[in-house]
Amino acid sequence: MGDESAVSTLVLRARNGDQQAWDAIVDRYAPLVWSICRRYGLDRLDSDDVGQTVWLRLLENLGRLREPAALPGWLERTTKNECLRVVQTTRRLERTEERIKREPSEQVDPFDELLEQSAAERDNALLREAFAQLPDRYRQLLLLLMADPPVSYEEISRRLDRPIGSIGPQRARSLAALRKKLAEMDMAGVGMRTTGR
After folding, report:
1. DSSP string, 123-182
2. How far apart are CA 38 and CA 47, in angstroms?
3. Could you say which of 1.10.10.10, 3.30.300.30, 1.10.287.600, 1.20.810.10 is the CATH number of the domain covering 113-187?
4. In terms of Cα–Cα distance, which of 88, 79, 185 is closest to 71?
């Protein structure tokens, strides 16, 4: 009963904006999330994505948890659902790749290929320009998340001096800002595709 009471207290404090309570929840239950990802055979990148999605979903639903003491069960169900989604998506992609390998290749018009390449180059330039206009904190986080080899959430937390539980929500805000910037540039006519000959 003491453990349920402690969990309820943490959830209630986190609902009220207590960052230490949120960090304590993430520290306490991150091993549960990662162990479920391992059971589903996910690699590190997929596990990080699942973990990020689970914490983001918790942040979105924290106020709706009817029974705060049931948090561990909620986290377990949400993590399993995310793992299944990743596994199913991976399988679909693998089947599609196999089908493409088996199908005879179609003849590609060199002019169409050149147009597609030019459009991709314009899109890349547009993306770089939008990225450069983001606030520094968003750029830093996105650069670390896209690093090759991948940087762990623990390392990102250390480098940016942010709680690990804030990385997922900050990532979502950063990507939303990038999408908004791209939409603004598109509405202004920057980088519009012209595919007519």
Report:
1. HHHHHHHHHHTS-HHHHHHHHHHT-SSPPPHHHHHHHHT--GGGHHHHHHHHHHHHHHHH
2. 8
3. 1.10.10.10
4. 79
Q: Token pair of 140, please?
A: 């830093």
- Whole-model pTM: value is 0.50
pLDDT grade for 190, boundaries at 50, 70 and 90: low
Q: How confident is the model at residue 194 (pLDDT cuts 50, 70, 90)?
A: very low
Say which residue, 38 or 148, is predicted with more confidence: 38
Predicted confidence (pLDDT) per residue in 107-145, tens digit: 555 556 556 666 666 667 777 888 888 899 888 888 888
> DSSP letter at 103?
S
HSE value, Cβ hemisphere, 13 Å, CA-based, for 139? 11
Sequence-separated (6 or more) residues with CB below 8 Å from residue 172: 56
Give exposure, 115-145, as e/b (b: 16+ Cβ within 10 Å): beeeeeeeeeebeeebbeebeeebbebbebb
- For the segment 49-56, the average pLDDT, to the nearest whole number, is 91
How many Cβ atoms sit within 10 Å of the Cβ of residue 165?
23
